[in-house]
Design brief:
By secondary structure, the chain is of the alpha+beta class. The chain has a single domain, classed as Chitinase A, domain 3 (Roll). The strands form two sheets. Strands 1, 2, 4, 5, 6, 8 and 9 form a seven-stranded antiparallel β-sheet that branches. The model has no long low-confidence stretch (mean pLDDT about 90).
């Protein structure tokens, strides 16, 4: 949703909520309804991911307890990245339908501190499973990516992300 549309919707909401004579809302939100909705979204997303993976049977996918799926298709060397390490990565982020969202520029890297940066939770989890030089495919469910809001630009709400990532360099805390 673009900013202009969001502003219009928000303005209408404010106008309607400021009426002097309010109607009683028959709908009550509670934890049970929220849990049910989340289970529904998760089940739908799981089906979408499994259908995608059915077309990628050559990928030797590992699934973590959080729902992150990864396949390291080219092995690097050394120890995996750790919390507080600074990593340099190259990546391409797409939706499962192939729509490209973000990519690092050619011959450039993105640098961030592991578990201390505003980088998607799924990518943070994945780099801690990777060694310098590893190349991996990641399937990041929406709850580990941008959730119910999306990123307000290129990634829609409740989107599963496919990330092709290379861990180019790890700088250990003692090296920085």
């Amino acid at each position: 949703m673009n900013l202009k549309l969001f502003s219009i919707v928000f303005s209408v909401f404010l106008l309607l909520s400021c009426k002097s004579e309010q109607k009683k809302n028959d709908f009550e939100w509670n934890t049970e309804k929220s849990t049910t909705m989340n289970k529904h979204f998760s089940a739908e997303e799981e089906i979408e991911i499994n259908l995608f993976l059915a077309r990628k049977q050559e990928w030797k996918i590992t699934k973590t307890g959080t729902g992150l799926r990864y396949f390291i298709y080219e092995n690097g060397e050394g120890e995996p990245a750790r919390v507080d390490d600074i990593v340099e990565v190259e990546y391409k982020i797409t939706l499962l339908d192939g729509t490209e969202c973000y990519t690092t520029a050619k011959d450039e890297v993105e640098e961030f501190k592991v578990d201390k940066a505003q980088v998607e939770t799924g990518i943070q989890e994945a780099v801690k499973l990777m060694r310098q030089g590893d190349k991996a495919h990641l399937i990041i469910p929406s709850h580990l990516a941008y959730g119910i809001i999306g990123d307000m630009t290129k990634i829609p709400p409740l989107s599963t992300l496919l990330v092709d990532i290379t861990l180019v360099k790890i700088y250990r805390k003692s090296q920085v």
